[in-house]
Write a structure and sequence with these properties.
Elements lengths: L15 H8 L22 H11 L30 H61 L20
Amino acid sequence: MSTTPDHPAAARQISTEDLLQALLPDTPAGAAPTRTAPAAEPVLDVAQLLELARAQGALDASRAAVPAPSAAVVPATPTNSGPIVPRWAIGTAVASVGLGAGSLLLGYALDLLATGAAAVAAGISAAAPMLLIGAVLVAALLGRRRASGGVQVTQSMTQTVTIRGRR
C-alpha cells in the first residue's frame, strides 16, 4: 500500500455550479419527471476505447500488470496453529482487570460507608436540640412527681438489745 493512488483521477477542480447541479434536482419536489425518449447508444469500437483509455491515463506504460500468484506459493494449511498471544499475557490481563475492578469496588464501598457516617452525624446534630429539650422535660416531670404527695411507703425497723448479766 502506498500514499499515491493506483488509479489517479484527472486533475479537475469541482466548481460550485457542478456541486449544485449534482445535489439539487432538476424538477421541484414531488413533481413527476417527464419521460423522454431513450437516447441512442453510441457505437464504439475497440480501437476508439483503447485510444480513449490512453488519453485518460488508464493505460500507462509504466504500470505493468501484476502476475497472479501461483498455487505453489500459497500454502494449503497454516504453518503455525499456536496461540497468537502467550498464555502469561492473557493471565496478566485478566489479573489486572480483576485488581482494577476490586480496587474500584473497595473505593465505592468506603465512599458509601463515609457517606452513611456523615448522614448519621448530620441526623444526630440536627436532632440534638430536640433530644436535649426532651431530656430536660423528662427530668422535670420526674422531679415533680417526687415533690408531689403521691403514695409513699415507709418502712422502719426498731431493734432492742437487752443485756443481762450474772453477778
